[in-house]
Amino acid sequence: MTADSAIEAAVRRSLSSVIDPEIRRPVTELDMISEVSVDDAGAASVGLTLTIVGCPAATTIERDVREATARVPGITAVTVDVSIMSRAQRDALTEKLRKGRPKTMQFGPDSLTQIVAVTSGKGGVGKSTLTANLAVSLAQSGLRVGVIDADVFGFSIPGLLGLHGTKPTQVGEMILPPIAYDVKVISIGMFVEENTAVSWRGPMLHRTIQQFLTDVFFGDLDVLLLDLPPGTGDVAISLGQLLPHSDVVVVTTPQSAAADVAERSGLVARQTGQRVIGVIENMAGLPQADGSVLELFGSGGGVDAAAKLSTPEEPVSVLASIPLSIALREGGDVGVPVVIAAPADPAAQAIHALAVTLRSHKRSVAGRKLGLSTN
Ligand SMILES: Nc1ncnc2c1ncn2[C@@H]1O[C@H](COP(=O)(O)OP(=O)(O)OP(=O)(O)O)[C@@H](O)[C@H]1O
After folding, report:
1. What is the pTM of this model?
2. Do 252 and 169 share a domain, yes or no?
3. Ligand 1, residues at Cβ distance < 6 Å
């Protein structure tokens, strides 16, 4: 090995630490480094091939490539030549990311991902706020987490996670989900004009969710959370058909009327073959300065709903009771989840505990076909 090729190899090794922020893989693995050469004076020239024109991560990747090259001992100058992948190169990359699997649903019956659909009987009970916080809490514990916001009538997940206005990058037919707080997020809201009311009918919704499950590059996930529209509508039925092995949690408030409605949405999930694993009671008592607890929405709704959803074969428990919390609401308003912004807040603590409980309900892999995966 000549001196030059040794230093070039050292540059390549250093470049393997540069991660594409959207795909979350080293640029060297993604065939984005087309050339590395170093002249006698130590001047390095690196060819960087980006996936698409206007790649939002371009500046970050170029900066990281420059820094990783400059770090190698003996390098005196760095030039980065940026180009864009050809269609054939992009197709090869998407093929590689799919690991040679045909274009198909990523979360089939052999998937090891824990899939949890978050539903509620009616709107405004905090389903989206809890989904967003739960996802971030799970990611904080080191899990690989994705969220699909299928709440067509009130897609609020992007805003709750600080992704307001962010559009996903598209590489060929592959959609790269934006990442917030280490959570990969895709939402119907990212594909429609701002503040547009979506009034899609069932088949259109079905196709959209199918496309999310097929074309969005989530990579290997430990947990996929789905934020469903409130009620017992088309999306719940589509998901039951597309992901019959998903679990369902039902969000309700402590109000008894809310619990009745929550029960109905859980029953629909069960009719489509999903497993109802528990109830989350949200907006429970707000602790007061004098030590008393203000039960604005009454109490007992969570226990009620769980009892009504339970069957002898499938008992349903209350997984968590999340208190009313100003910090939780404020975090949602500014796109910084309370589990990040105020981790000591009682609601944040309850959400962390919920994340642990949820993981304990992961389905056993016994008897399931294991897909081979290297990451
Ligand atoms: N525990 C809580 N304490 C205080 N405010 C809360 C709590 N949970 C949710 N909220 C607030 O209640 C409102 C409704 O929450 P969110 O949008 O998450 O409900 P949702 O069930 O997803 O509604 P929809 O299904 O209609 O989108 C938001 O303003 C949110 O900040």
Report:
1. 0.81
2. yes
3. 120, 123-129, 151, 154, 156, 230, 282-283, 322, 324-325, 328-329, 332, 347
